[in-house]
Specification:
Layout: E1 2-3, H1 28-52, H2 60-76, E2 86-92, E3 98-102, E4 106-107, E5 113-117, H3 124-128, E6 137-146, E7 149-157, E8 162-163, H4 172-177, H5 194-200, E9 208-212, H6 218-232, H7 234-240, E10 242-246, H8 249-255, H9 258-261, E11 268-271, H10 272-276, H11 287-294, H12 297-307, E12 317-321, E13 324-328, H13 330-341, H14 347-368, H15 375-383, H16 385-394, H17 400-409, H18 411-418, H19 424-430, H20 446-459, E14 467-470, H21 478-486, E15 492-497, H22 511-518, E16 524-528, E17 530-531, H23 536-542, H24 546-549, E18 557-558, E19 565-570, H25 574-585, E20 592-596, H26 601-610, E21 616-617, E22 649-653, E23 662-668, H27 670-675, H28 680-691, E24 694-702
Parallel strand pairs: 3-5, 9-15, 9-16, 10-11, 10-14, 14-15, 17-18, 19-24, 20-22, 20-23, 21-22, 23-24
Antiparallel strand pairs: 1-7, 2-3, 2-6, 4-5, 6-7, 7-8, 12-13
Helix pairs in contact: 5-6, 6-7, 12-18, 12-20, 13-14, 14-15, 14-16, 17-18, 17-20, 20-21, 21-22, 25-26
Length: 710
Amino acid sequence: MRENGSMPTTPDRAPACPEPSPPEPTGELVAERRHLAESRAALHRMRERTAAMEALSGDRVSGEYLKLTLYRRMKALEDDPEVPLFFGRLQYDDQDERFYIGRRHVSDERGDPLVVDWRAPVSRAFYRATAAEPMGVRQRRRFGFQHGALSAYEDEDLKRGAMAARGAERTILEEEIERPRTGPMRDIVATIQPEQDDIVRADLATSVCVQGAPGTGKTAVGLHRAAYLLYANRDQLARQGVLVVGPNASFLRYIADVLPALGEIDAKQTTIEQLVQSVPVRGVDDVAVARLKSDARMAEVLRRAVWSSVGSAVEALVVPIGARRWRVPAFEADEIVDELRHRGVRYDAGRAMLPQRLAHAVLVKMELAGESPDDRVQDWVARCRPVKAFAAAVWPPIEPRRLVWRLLSDPEFLAAAAEGLLTPAEQATLRWAPAPRSPGAAHWSMHDAVLLDEAADLVERLPSLGHVVLDEAQDLSPMMLRAVGRRCSTGSATVLGDLAQATTPWAVRDWPRALGHLGKAGAHLEELTLGFRVPADVIDFAARLLPVIAPALAVPTSVRRAAGDLVVRPSADPVAAAVTAAAELSRREGSVALIVSDSLLAQTDRALSTAGLAHGRLSAAAEPAPSSGPAAEPAPGAAGDADWLEARVDVVPASLAKGLEFDHVVVVEPEAIVAAEPDRLTGLRRLYVCLTRAVMSLTVLHSGPLPPEL
């Protein structure tokens, strides 16, 4: 049955029009509300018990660790009255016990579960059970909420394959999927679909790549997989760590609340620029230079440059010990160096091994002469001045920043490292002109920072995390993918993206090659084509671009019964028309975004202000982009006005639209968005991104002709 028809269609802020008062609850709805109240009270008691614990320990360090553990536990037990503690209920055939499925585990004073965590094995049936395969479930119940208050429920009898009172009206599941998108991104634990659940619950050892069309929930799936892995592998990932890598700071702000809402606060979030930024990024590369620095061949160039520092012995090593002088011939020292070079160790690791290997060679000669040295003698020999000086001359220390500076400044050094890899013309393109006098004087670009990261790992291995979630991976270059792969070299990865939305000139154009650069060639590839966010009319309109921008991909389809509103119309002044449309749409439910080419951002902002329409703004010009060219992705921190997530109306530059979603979208001058990119294919992909940000309606305004592909 479905009781109390008020559904969760209210946005986080007060709607434009007052809502009618729902009828008084009767019957079982009262009992379910009572269970919700008991669960909230139990969660409050759990948090109070944690707060009352004292961080008593034997020493100060252990005490600090215990305090941190208690703090994290307190954060995980925070209760937001606007967020329901549970969203479903399972009742099995062979028992009267009911399992309420929610965002975290809640137990009563006896330890009995009042709410079961959605990640627990018993909860899987909520997402997987069907009439054909009920998994022992007799009845599945979904709950509807308004501002955290339970307002409705809906039962599905899996034995009879029927849902009560479905009729022509939307189900709770559909209304939750289509609920207005105001504020930051929210979790999807109440609406995870079976194909998404397979990805979310993949084991930690498995790396997964998700090719997902717009609106298929790939970002949410990746975040929920991180939450699931933290739950299922708590001890291991608490030590090794989980990292979420997003395309820009605006995107990270948008997704920042998802994991904390699920009780997970340990996962870190960063952008690729922040991940590799070991130097101040002040320079800008043009597209040709950026493409060359992003090429996978640069990894071999850097490897050669690093190991070219290792030389040959010019004379024998002589070590005086007491009255004797022990001699290691130059050819024998070179053999030791050559053996270390081919062991596959990092540069600094080999450099640290060399004195010990030379000392061992001395000890062998001492033993052949009838002496009986022990390990203490070897350690002394390894630390003595002649050995240290000899090792430093043959295997000198390297500073990655100075090495990359020399590579980009010194034609002869670059030519030696790039021989057979880069043509003379490419080498000339790569070199700085004019060359800075020192590493400190260099205007490093974001692509230089990626090269520095590669060089740093060649010198000393970077530590690996337990799991990395990489979103919008289709935009990363081979060298960027290598940088991310180093962070999970001994762990696993969840790779998320859509090849149709690749908008950088240096992007890898297919997943097998991208996964190879990431070091996860054996990752499982999953394609999601069923859209839950973008309305059918909107996705069908945007999909007209797919035969040109991504002909190999399957055409996405929308599972939503609501078609959505699609308006495409010419206008003599599309910016003015967009302001008018925004004013009209702001009187409707949900968020509104005016997506414009970056060149029209200031004009649109002024027009909205002149019209007196309050709005937020994402500014691509808030900080100079560390990467370059007309197609450069926005810099971290370029989020514009701090309150853009709270505004009803937002002005969004096309370069920052990726990954975001709004209820109503107005796209201004599509051809200008296409023309802003360095080539037409990239421009059409950028337009595809912009057209697919809409959840309820899309309005396209243009003064010139539409792109022929539309």
